[in-house]
Design goal:
By secondary structure, the chain is an alpha/beta fold. The chain has a single domain, classed as Aldolase class I (TIM Barrel), CATH 3.20.20.70. The structure holds iron/sulfur cluster.
């Protein structure tokens, strides 16, 4: 899995205390993106999903895992592999894709919550769990 970084405890990337994996590589290039360093698919560092899963399990006081970007759906296979190693965890995924474009993917089906849509600078908002008001929080009916 190609990652830009990991935040072991975050309060702003989903509900509760979350372990956040920022994937490296994003095809959307939203104007005003706060993480343009994550765009380059050749950047970041390669980390094994087994190591990330172990690190998650060894990190205390977590309510769940969040995959953000970059674009997690650009690395679906690795993300699915990671989430299958953490089967009972609460999962949020932030994506620049609209829900209709990803809802039938295996990765989307492993999420409890999907935050969908590209960032639009003119609709930027503060204090929410998304960056601009066009983005949507979709609570899935995940099968466990
Ligand atoms: S989808 Fe997210 S990471 Fe990608 S350019 Fe847009 S805001 Fe940045």
């Amino acid at each position: 899995m190609k990652i830009a970084g990991i935040l072991p405890h975050s309060l702003v990337n989903g509900e509760g205390v979350r372990y956040v994996v920022f994937l490296q590589g994003c095809p959307h290039h939203c104007h005003g993106c706060q993480n343009p360093d994550t765009w380059d698919f050749n950047g970041g560092k390669e980390v094994s999903v087994i190591d990330i899963a172990e690190d998650y399990k060894n990190t205390k006081c977590l309510d769940g895992i969040t995959l953000s970007g970059g674009e997690p759906f650009a690395q679906q296979e690795a993300c699915v592999e990671l989430l299958k190693l953490l089967p009972d965890m609460n999962v949020w995924i932030y994506t620049g894709y609209e829900y209709e474009n990803i809802q039938n993917t295996e990765l989307a089906k492993l999420a409890d919550v999907l935050v969908v849509g590209q960032f639009v600078e003119s609709l930027k908002c503060e204090g929410k769990m998304y960056g601009s008001s066009n983005q949507r929080i979709v609570r899935t009916e995940r099968e466990r």
